[in-house]
Design a protein that fits this description.
globular, alpha/beta, single chain, 47% helix, Collagenase (Catalytic Domain), four-stranded mixed beta sheet, 144 residues
C-alpha cells in the first residue's frame, strides 16, 4: 500500500494539514509521471542532519535536506527525506517566507530529487527552482 509518513527525531514537530500536504505530494508525483511506493519524511535538528551529511555524503556543511533514494524500480518512488527544521526556520526568515511556505518548498524539493531532478549545476538549480515555484503555485489543487 503506497504511503507517505511524517515523523520527527528528537524535536517536537508536526506538519500542519498533513493529509492535504500528502495529497499535494501525490499530485506532484502524478504530474512527474512517477508512482508512489513509500516516502518517509523525518524532521530533525541541524546537528542531526549535519551528522548524516558527514557520514553518508562526506559533506561538512549544514543543509536543509538530504534525500535518500531507496527505489528499486524505475518511475517508482521509495525514499527517505531528512529535513532540518532549524535550517527551514532560518531560511524562512532569510527569504521572508512563512515557515509553512519554506517547509513546502523543501518537501517538494526532495520529491523532485527522487523524480530525477538535480541541482548540482547552475542550470539544474534554475530548473529545480522553476519546478518548485510551479508546484508551490499548484498547491491550489488542494486546500492547504
Amino acid at each position: 500500500m503506497p504511503s507517505i509518513k511524517f515523523s520527527s527525531e528528537n524535536i517536537p514537530f508536526r506538519v500542519k494539514n498533513s493529509l492535504e500536504v500528502k495529497e499535494w505530494i501525490k499530485e506532484v508525483l502524478k504530474k512527474e509521471k512517477h508512482q508512489l511506493d513509500s516516502l518517509q519524511y523525518i524532521f530533525c535538528t541541524d546537528e542531526a542532519l549535519l551528522e548524516r551529511n558527514i557520514y553518508y555524503l562526506k559533506h561538512y556543511t549544514y543543509t536543509d535536506i538530504i534525500t535518500f533514494d531507496l527505489s528499486e524500480k524505475e518511475k517508482t518512488i521509495r525514499g527517505e527525506i531528512y529535513i532540518s527544521i532549524d535550517r527551514v526556520k532560518e531560511n524562512a526568515q532569510t527569504f521572508k517566507q512563512t515557515l509553512e511556505e519554506e517547509l513546502h518548498r523543501v518537501i517538494i524539493h526532495g520529491v523532485l530529487h527522487l523524480c530525477g531532478h538535480g541541482d548540482k549545476t547552475k542550470a539544474d538549480k534554475n530548473h529545480m527552482r522553476h519546478l518548485e515555484d510551479y508546484y508551490l503555485k499548484k498547491r491550489k489543487w488542494i486546500r492547504l
